[in-house]
Amino acid sequence: MADGIMSKAATMEIPINSNGDTRTLSEDDGLEQAVKLQRRLDEKDLQQVMVSGPNLNETSIVSGGYGGTAEGIIPTGSIKGPSMHHSSSSSSMAAEDTSRGVAVEKLENVKKWGLSTYKCTKQMISERFGRGSRTVDLELEAQIELLRDTKCKYENVLRLARALTNHFYNMVQTQHSLGDTFADLSQKSPELRDEFGYNAETQKLLCKNGETLLGAINFFVSSINTLVNKTMEDTLMTIKMYENSRLEYDAYRSDLEELSLGPRDAAAVARIDAAQEQYQVQKDRYERLRSDVTIKLKFLEENKVKVMHKQLLLFHNAISAYFAGNQQQLAQTLQQFNIKLKPPGADKPSWLEEQ
């Protein structure tokens, strides 16, 4: 009985909290306050991290699972984040500087082009209305006009020669078909076999000679086409560049003359010096192109005489031999000018090329 009472009293003296822990209430209160204080500190640290951002140099990357050793810790101070950001910023700034420089250069080119166009337009209008002076080389201008007139006449010759080629080609094809028809009728009409046979042979001979003449005419047309549309056209392109440079030269010359008649203050002197420099550049370009045109006109005239002498002789001999019925002379004419006839069907693509 006494032992039961003593055990009961001892049991009543041990305080038990709500969690079943045997610690005292004062210890629980202190522990609870410490937990609350720690939570407040953690919240402040979290707010500070969210505001200022993490410091990579003070953090570590842990490799491995929870509770791993220190061997798996990699200090992030070795990661050069700021330097990488700096290099990317430098490259972007360099790219922006380059693009800005290109844009400025294009703007300057557009500005120069606009100023030059304005001066040339002003000079052209002044010349058209008779108020501006114009640089003229009488001898060179006469040669240029003669070339343009010659080109027009040679283009007419080329057009007529092509028309002759087309008509003659159709005639040769008709003769070829007529010869085949006569040969067929010669086989089917015994009473007129000889007559149809003679005409068939004649048409075949004419067709053969016509194909030979077509080779000569095609060579003539090809040579005239090269002379007109390549050699003369190349010279005319140089002449066009020369005329443009002449207009620019006169425009800058007129601008320099106007500035020279104005006041002579410091700003005006600077503008005159700049205009003098631009004028000299345009003058050098004009004189260089004028020399190029003179040389090309000289070589073009020599080439034209040489080519036309050969082609006109070929055309005359081939036409004369064909209509005289001299097949041997016609063949010798082509051999003389190194003209090789293409076999029938040579212009048609092969079955492999058609695939």
SSE blueprint and pairings:
Elements lengths: L1 H12 L11 H28 L7 E3 L10 E3 L5 H48 L9 H51 L4 H68 L5 H58 L3 H10 L14 H4 L1
Antiparallel strand pairs: 1-2
Helix pairs in contact: 3-5, 4-5, 5-6, 5-7, 6-7
Mean pLDDT: 77
By DSSP (H or I, 4+ residues per run), the number of helices equals 8
Shape: elongated
How can the largest sheet be summarized? 2 strands, antiparallel
Order of helices and strands: HHEEHHHHHH
Number of extended strands: 2
- Trace the largest sheet across and list its strands: 1-2
Strand content: under 5%
- In terms of per-residue confidence, which ranges show pLDDT below 50 for 5 or more consecutive residues? 1-28, 49-82, 350-355
How far from one another are the termini? 122 Å
Give the class from helix and strand content and strand pairing: mainly alpha
How large is the radius of gyration? 51 Å
State the share of residues found in helices, binned by percent: over 70%
Features of the shown structure:
single chain; 355 residues; 79% helix; disordered C terminus
Would you summarize the structure shown here?
With 355 residues, this protein is mostly helical.
